[in-house]
Amino acid sequence: MSRQVFINLPVADLPKSIAFFKALGFSQNLQFTDDTGTCIVVSDTISVMLLTHARFRDFTPKAICDTGKAVEVLLNLSCESRDEVDGLVAKALAAGGSTYDEPEDHGFMYSHSFVDPMAMAGGSST
User: Fold this and answer.
1) Burial of 104 by CB count in 10 Å (0-12 exposed, 13-18 middle, 19+ buried)?
2) How do residues 43-65 score in pLDDT, each as one tens digit?
3) Is 28 exposed, middle or buried (0-12, 13-18, 19+ CB in 10 A)?
4) Hey, which residues does 115 pair with through a beta bridge?
């Protein structure tokens, strides 16, 4: 059995965060979904758990980072091609996200990033 990664993120607006990830082309695992969270399937081995702040606090006594002021984590997703990277960023922008940098071509690696709309709003992360 291969190991799976479940990334847990607190979100201020669960329905808006779900809509954002669906707009990127990811699906939900309804087995791990209720009114306090959902499981977004990124690949066979990677899932993102979007959790309301109250539900996220059930797993840690620490404060939730206000992403309008600070960054707690950077997540990277590999893609098959430059076109796939650009397409994913375009979907994120169309779904209300933003980008804070320009694409970078390092020869061996091409990168670009996006920020989801809930992180821009502050007090949440997706």
Assistant:
1) exposed
2) 999 999 999 999 999 999 999 98
3) middle
4) 98
